[in-house]
Design brief:
Elements lengths: L6 E6 L4 E6 L9 H14 L2 H4 L4 E6 L18 H17 L4 E5 L2 E3 L1 H7 L3 E5 L3 E3 L10 H10 L2 H10 L3 E2 H6 L5 E3 L4 H13 L4 H11 L1 H21 L4 H11 L10
Parallel strand pairs: 2-3, 3-4, 4-6, 5-7, 6-9
Antiparallel strand pairs: 1-2, 7-8
Length: about 260
């Protein structure tokens, strides 16, 4: 098994399930280093050693949270043009993965962390989890979530999340189709274990891959069709504004932003 610095990997059920935990706690920030390691592990799991036995990839966070999101430092104007395409390529890689993927969400799941979860086949969350895309408070927006959320829920909730930036309880997002299942914190693992025992382990690995491919045709095509345009809007239009640069710098300097409206 590969060794990583920013994620941990465990094989479960004789290698039929692999758990990938984002680090480092408590925030589990999705840095470029995390992106690189997660991409490498997904590539490893798609190889011949796992092709005939891997039935589920489960993503979670180390400690009490899934992830606070992507690195704000790496969103600075002098680095975002390198970081953002890499992150969007990772999301594409997750969407194109034929092995079913499940996000095990606890605590906070925000920004880029939520975008990683949205790229999974399913999201199981504990009842205390809060999910959101708070980027607007920094004067920016979440490109991948802007593309993926409309595939899962209605326009009104997408607009509410993107425009207000507020965190939303997992139960509400379950009601609108973003989250698949919500359980009390002490029952989340039991719910996932039940899913694995009843609906994953008894199935054919090859049939699960083919079924995943069929079920995800729409979201894969939607993402591929729109992400380049949204990424360009972010990099060429948004990051050319004074407010976007100011919002990032104000956050890093721990001060209120001074908006000028352009």
């Amino acid at each position: 098994m590969a060794s990583y610095t920013n994620i941990t990997v465990r094989e479960l059920h004789d290698g039929q399930v692999v758990e990938i935990a984002l680090g480092k706690p408590p925030a589990n920030i999705v840095t470029m280093a995390v992106m690189q390691e997660l991409s490498a592990e997904l590539s490893r799991l798609s190889g011949d050693d796992y092709f005939h036995r891997l039935k589920l990839i489960m993503l979670t966070g180390q400690g009490d949270n899934f992830s606070y999101g992507a690195s704000v430092e790496e969103h600075r104007a002098d680095g975002v043009a390198d970081m953002l395409p890499r992150f969007h390529a990772l999301i594409a890689q997750m969407l194109e993965c034929d092995v079913p993927t499940l996000a095990r969400v606890k605590g906070l799941c925000l920004g880029g962390g939520l975008e990683v979860a949205l790229a999974c086949s399913m999201i199981y969350a504990d009842a205390d989890a809060k999910l959101g895309v708070p980027e607007i408070s920094l004067g920016v927006f979440p490109p991948a979530a802007s593309v993926l959320l409309p595939c899962k829920t209605g326009d009104s909730i997408v607009s509410e999340m993107v425009l207000t930036g507020k965190s939303i309880p997992a139960a509400r997002l379950c009601d609108v189709g973003v989250v698949n299942h919500v359980a009390d914190a002490d029952q989340l693992d039991g719910a996932i274990d039940k899913l694995i025992a009843r609906s994953i382990l008894p199935r054919s690995a090859s049939s699960l891959r083919i079924a995943t491919r069929a079920a995800r045709i729409g979201i894969r095509k939607h993402y591929a069709l729109h992400i380049a345009e949204v990424e360009s809007l972010y990099l060429k239009t948004l990051m050319a504004t004074t407010d976007a640069v100011e919002g990032i710098e104000a956050f890093l300097e721990k001060r209120p932003p001074e908006w000028v409206g352009k």
